[in-house]
Every structure is written in structure tokens, then in C-alpha cells.
Design goal:
Blueprint: E1 2-10, H1 14-21, E2 34-41, E3 44-51, E4 54-66, E5 70-75, E6 81-91, E7 94-103, H2 107-115, H3 118-137
Antiparallel strand pairs: 1-7, 2-3, 3-4, 4-5, 5-6, 6-7
Length: 150
């Protein structure tokens, strides 16, 4: 299991950063390799990814969600992964977004890519693209403010 931790400061209020992160169907606009995400219900998503020419589909479950604080999830089919993103108010117009991700590389290609640090670099790039996406918009594309407790 590989653990990745990445944070980035974004120049938007914490509510704006959090609200945008709850818009999973928008992830392909800033996450490399994510082709599509469908929100099935408030706690389930279906992902289609393409990495190194290989298409994968899997389902994920939101295990914890608290407005302006955190979103946690785990895969329930396909590749094994789990993560949490937390939102930290730095001031009225700046937020630190912290991502912790655990992934289990499957197959030789994914294991080699992991050893070469490709997953960590991709995650860093995704966070930078999220920053550019939300800062260039200045507002979120939508919001889901519900609570999901463990």
C-alpha cells in the first residue's frame, strides 16, 4: 500500500474550496487520467479512469463528510484505495487543502509506476490543477452540504 500526502493553498474561502470538492462529476476537469465520475447517490460514485492506456472502472463510497472540514472515501470495487481531504481556513480568502491517499498498485505496470513516483507526481499535479481551476473561476460549480458520519 502506498500512502501519498499532498497539500496546496488556494486563494478562495474554505466554503468555496469545500463546495467545489463535493462536485465529483467535475473532477475530470482537473484530475489527470479521470475520464468520468457519476454520482450514484449522496454516498456513492462510479469512476472511469485511464492510466497508461488502460481503462479501469470502480465504485467508491463516501465514508465521512462534514461541510467545510473533510471528505473521506474508499473504493468498494476495483483497485484498492482510500483517502481523505481536509480543508483548513488560513484567512477569509485562503484555504489549505490537504489530501491523504492510500492506493494499492495492481499489476506490474502500476507497481513499476508507483516505484518511479508517478502516482505522487500525478497527485501533486492534480492538486495544482484544482488550485488553478477554483482560483480561475473564483466560485464553485455547485455544492453538496450534507453530513455523512462514520
Amino acid at each position: 500500500m502506498t500512502t501519498i500526502e499532498q497539500s496546496i493553498d488556494v486563494s478562495v474561502p474554505v466554503t468555496t474550496a469545500y463546495n467545489q470538492w463535493t462536485q465529483f462529476e467535475e473532477f475530470p476537469q482537473f484530475m489527470e487520467g479521470v475520464e468520468e465520475i457519476r454520482q450514484i447517490d449522496p454516498t456513492h460514485t462510479h469512476w472511469v479512469t485511464k492510466v497508461a492506456g488502460k481503462t479501469e472502472e470502480f465504485d467508491a463510497e463516501i465514508t465521512e463528510q462534514h461541510p467545510d472540514e473533510r471528505v473521506a472515501w474508499k473504493s468498494i470495487s476495483g483497485p484498492t484505495q482510500a483517502g481523505v481531504v481536509t480543508f483548513h481556513r488560513l484567512n477569509d480568502n485562503e484555504t489549505r487543502v490537504m489530501l491523504q491517499l492510500e492506493v494499492q498498485p495492481e499489476g506490474i505496470v502500476e507497481q513499476v509506476g508507483d516505484k518511479l513516483g508517478l502516482v505522487k507526481r500525478r497527485t501533486k499535479g492534480d492538486m495544482e490543477r484544482f488550485k488553478n481551476f477554483i482560483e480561475s473561476r473564483g466560485s464553485e460549480t455547485g455544492a453538496w452540504r450534507g453530513n455523512v458520519a462514520r
